[in-house]
Structure formats: structure tokens, C-alpha cells
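Researcher: If convenient, please comment on what follows.
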Amino acid sequence: MPVVKKAIKTVYLDTIPHVVKPFEFPALSSIKASDLPNNGFGNKNYYIPKTKFGHWPVYLRIQNTKITTEIKRLKGDLIQFKSDLLESVPGLEARHISVNQQTGNVNVKGDLVDILKEVFTQKVKSEKLNEK
């Protein structure tokens, strides 16, 4: 049987070079808060990180005759923290609490350092018991 060889013709086509476009971020005006991941934090909840030595960031501040208790490094919904603080500490009034949203500080009129540390510790213990 005779072997038939066919010639294959090579054809070169002009192709458009593939250009990779750089990633473009969407406009901020097109992003909604509900589209963001982890959008639940700061909405009716807050977090108080302890210091590197394991203490609550609650400090007594004395300026002449004015004595206040300062709670630092709060993250989240500080208004919710204020309302929870009013529920937790009997005899505390809303006018005695000032909240600084920018810095995450809360100032309470009077020396309540030991009371607040005890309240925070009890809340953490009760939350751990509820998780189990």
C-alpha cells in the first residue's frame, strides 16, 4: 500500500495581544454597609480588651478635687456600653457618664474603679457559663 504524505500548511494569524487590566476598586459611594464582611460588630455590642498584664483598663483620675473613673480602649457601640453600665451599677445616673466615641474612652463621675472591675469580671464569667 502506498504511503501518502500530505503537506500541512502553516497559517499565522494576526492576534490581538492580551492586555491585563489592573484591578479597579469600586467607588465608595457604590458600597453599602450591609455588603461589607463582619458588619455586625459595633452594632449593639462592644469589646473591652485587657492590658498586656491581664488587667481591665479602668483607671482613677484625680484633677484637684474632681475624681473620675476612666475606662479606656473600648471598641464597638459605646452607647450600648453606657446603657449596660447603667443597668449593671445601681445608683449610677446617665448624667454622670460621658462617652468619647473618637478615642473609645468613657468617664464616670466618682471613684468606681473596684466596682467596675468586679462588674466586668462577673459579666465575662457569666458569658463563659452561657457559652457552655
Observations:
- The mean pLDDT is 86.
- The helical segments are 78-88, 113-131.
- The longest strand covers residues 58-63.
